[in-house]
Amino acid sequence: MDDGIARRADRIAEAVRRGEPAALGRALSLVEGGGALGNALSARFRDSAGSARLVGVTGPPGSGKSTLVDALIGEWRSREKRVAVLAVDPVSPRTGGAVLGDRTRMGERSLDDDVFIRSVSARGHLGGLCAAARGMVAAMEAAGWDLIVLETVGAGQSETEVAEIADCTLVVSAPGLGDELQAIKAGILEIGNILVVNKCDRPGAGETARDLSAMLKLRQGEAARVPVVQVSATTGEGIGTLAAEIDTRLAATRRGPPGTVPARPSPDFGGYVCAGLPDTEDPALAALFRRAASDPELAQRLLELAGSQKKPSGR
C-alpha cells in the first residue's frame, strides 16, 4: 500500500474514533466508493465490527419503514440513547444515486447532535442492502455509536441479507399490502426476530396480525415465539411496546459480562470483501475468492488490487 494512502487512512480513522461527524461522513463516502483509500479505511475499522448493537428494519415498499425508524428514534432519544442510522435507498435510474426518501422523513432528527443519519444507494446490489454495508457499519461503530439502525430498501421474499448482520431484525408489514397472503412462504418473513404490523390505525391491521400469528404457530421451537407487534408510526401507538421488545431481543443476544457486546453473525472481513467482488466462472479465481473469505490478509490484498484498477468516476 502507498505510504501516502496509509497516512491519510490513519488520519481519517483517528478523526472518526474521536467522534468527529465530518470525518465519519467522509469515511462513509470513501468506504462506500471503494478504491485504495476506501479499502484501507475498511481494514482499519474491521476491529470495531460487533462493538455496537445493530437493529435491522426491512419489509416491502409502502410498509412505512422510514416513518417507523423515525418514531423509534424519538422513543430512544427520550431514553437518552444515541442513535445512528444507515438507510439504504433505491437507486436513481438517472443519476445512480440514492432516492433520499429516508432523509425527507427523518429530516428533523438530523438536527440532533445525538442522532446521525446516512442515506446510501443500493447501486443495484441484491439482498436489500448496499455492497459496502458491513464496512460502513463498522465505521459507525468505530465512531462510538452504540445503537445503529440499518434500514433496507423495499424488500421482497429473497432479500434477507440484513439478518446476517443485525442483532435484531424487524420485518415490517402493513394492512392491504398482501403480506398476510405470503405469510406461509419461505423468505423475508422468516428472518424477523420481531414482526411489526405498522399502520395499525387502518382497517385490516388486526387481520394482518392474526394471519402472521397463525403462520408462526406452524413453526417449531424458537421460531414459533417471534412476537407480533402492532404499531402506528404516525400516531406513536405501540412504539413504546416495540422498543421494549427490541430491548428484550438485544438483551437475549448479549453474551459475557454486563457491558460487553458479542460479535454479530458473519462480521468477518473476508466475507465482506468477497460480497463485493464480481462473480466469476474462472475456477482458479473462484477458489481464490473462497479462500479470501476466511483469510483477512488475502482479502485485504484483493481489495487493494481492485482499488488500484478502479477507473476514475469523473466526479
Automatic annotation (TrEMBL):
Entry annotated with the keyword Hydrolase: yes
Enzyme Commission number(s) from the entry: 3.6.-.-
SUPFAM superfamilies the record matches: P-loop containing nucleoside triphosphate hydrolases (SSF52540)
A Pfam family per the record: MeaB
Any GO molecular function: GTP binding
Keywords assigned: Chaperone, GTP-binding, Hydrolase, Nucleotide-binding
Alphabetical list of NCBIfam families matching this protein: lao (TIGR00750)
Protein name (database record): Putative GTPase ArgK
Source organism: Roseovarius indicus
